[in-house]
Amino acid sequence: MSEALERHEFGAEVGRLLDLVVHALYSEREIFLRELVANAADAVDRRRFEALTDPALMLPGEAKLRIIPDKAARTLTLSDPGIGMSKAELAQHLGTIARSGTLAFAKSLADAPAAEKPSLIGQFGVGFYSAFMVADRVEVTSRRAGTEEAWTWASEGRGEYTLAPATRDEAGTDIVLHIKSDAEEFLEPIRLQTIIRKWADHITIPITVVRDGQEEPANEGTALWRKPKSEITEEQYADFYRHVAHTFDKPWATLHWRAEGAVDFSALLFIPGMKPFQVVEGERESPLRLHVRRMFITEDAKLLPPWLRFVHGVVDTEDLPLNVSREMLQATPVLGRIRKAVTNRVLSELKSRAKDAEDYAKFWENFGIVLKEGVWEDAEHRQDVAGLLRFRSSAVEGWTSLAEYVSRMKPEQEAIYILAGDSTDALAKSPQLEGFKARGVEVLLLADQIDAFWPERLDSFDGKPLRSITQGDIDLSKLPLEGEAAAEPADLAPLLPLLKDALKDEVADVQATDRLVGSAVVLAAEAGGPDLQMQRLLRRAGRAFGPDRAVLQLNPRHPLIRRLAERAGAGADLAETAGLLLDLARVQDGDTPRDPVAFASRVAAALAAEAG
């Protein structure tokens, strides 16, 4: 055989290109196994296709890819029963970097019926060379189906390769990698099985790994998302969901469809039935798995926007090359079209499921806080997401939507009123609601932190503006009080300037208001400024843009305010009382007094005076 050994130079700038493949094209060394498995699956698909017109090329009854680690010899062998390669094809496909036999073959199939075309994986022709990331020598022995002749291609990846006659009992290819000293982990059967499970679990050809002389299955071999829905059981869907989502619950929704047109892809997505431990914190990127012709590519393709990151599953396309880099992946218009189609499909599913209020409530309680982010950051889908939001209300039990709120608005009502805070229980008791309840006006209660932000971006829904009721310039005069007529208001002309002067460094203004019924005082935000909840959040985060200067509003019908107005008219000093009123308003609003110790002293003194 040594006399027949042929030496050849690589047919490209091998030094630069091999260095690119080994050190730059792939971010993880284990990718080499994905590439070689993809090539083997491609070869099997190609043989299966050619056998349609030449029965002599039919695959053997038990066609599988065998992976054989040999620690003693420090070799890793992949053996497949695919179409194989002739001497000329070995030189053509392995001797020339960046030349793809698969691509040439795919072009030759342009006129073949779609149903008969095998699902081919590689297109760039460089995946094979990733073997040199872990091997200092690679040998490929191959026999073309339909021939008796076998050849061995061998190279150390340094500018040349050799070709020599060989023997192989059956058609197919054996790839032997002589593993580098720093890559011995790839001789461990468990490690190999883990990699295959991660990257090639759903390649249709069975894959086995030899361990202690026994062949052990390494993949399921079924791309569930490519099967008709009628052939899949609920239990199979649930098992696959648990596999991709790494969870143990059942999915709340399963979306399985095939898209054809501007871009072709299959998708199998799941919306979980259980809230994760960290629904908001941590990674904000979509975890959807991108596959190309059944081969896993990445979980970092950002196939859904961050506000749909709770969706798990797989998207598998025919329209991307297997070896596409992350940079190319983000720039390709194909991925952009897939993203748009997948996002719209998830939104459509949510809209459909939202018609069942009880069922949708389960989803909302798990992931509503995440979905709200879409209103804040996604202008394209803002109105669609707004229609999916649900809220607690001051007027109805359970969850309600913006559309339902608008349907219940009073004829004279000009806005959708909201109140944001730290808990719905506290909000339901807030004095901010008194004037609205007295007029039969509904207020939506918002208790998530993001509720202080997104209303500003939405601005309006169904032509109705959103207004926080803590904004001090809301006019309720057009909405008459219901029930008993209210008492006549006291004249606060003597009182207001006294309190404003006493609190001049701590409030923006002191005003009379018709928004209160049972409470004496309330805080309001200045017109045009952030509402009270936003101010609190900014203050807690150390990002307040200035001192708290809310508006202190007084109820002119309250007995306490009436009495203070009388004392102001008599020339009483109300400086201490002014501070007590401000602290009282802060406490009612779920905030803390300016000086808790001083507040406690004032309350104690007031109680002592009352007791005396």
Average of pLDDT: 87
According to CATH, what is the class of the largest domain?
A: Alpha Beta
Uncertain residue ranges = 119-124
- Name given to the CATH architecture of the largest domain: 3-Layer(aba) Sandwich
- Helix tally equals 20
Protein name: Chaperone protein HtpG
Region (C): 537-612
Subunit structure: Homodimer.
Binding site for ATP: 35, 39, 80, 85, 100-101, 123-128, 173, 326
What does this structure look like?
The chain has about 600 residues and is of the alpha+beta class. Helix content is about 35%, strand content about 20%. A hairpin with a 2-residue loop joins strand 18 (about 460) and strand 19 (about 465-470). Helix 16 (about 495-500) crosses helix 19 (about 575-590). It is elongated and about 120 Å long. About 40% of the residues are buried. Mean pLDDT is about 85; it is low at about 120-125. It is found in: Cytoplasm. Keywords: ATP-binding, Chaperone, Cytoplasm, Nucleotide-binding, Stress response. This is Chaperone protein HtpG. Molecular chaperone. Has ATPase activity.
What does this entry show, briefly?
This protein is an alpha+beta fold. It has three domains: about 1-215, Histidine kinase-like ATPase, C-terminal domain (Heat Shock Protein 90, 2-Layer Sandwich), CATH 3.30.565; about 225-355, Ribosomal Protein S5, domain 2 (2-Layer Sandwich), CATH 3.30.230.80; about 390-610, Rossmann fold (3-Layer(aba) Sandwich), CATH 3.40.50. Helix 16 (about 495-500) packs across helix 19 (about 575-590).
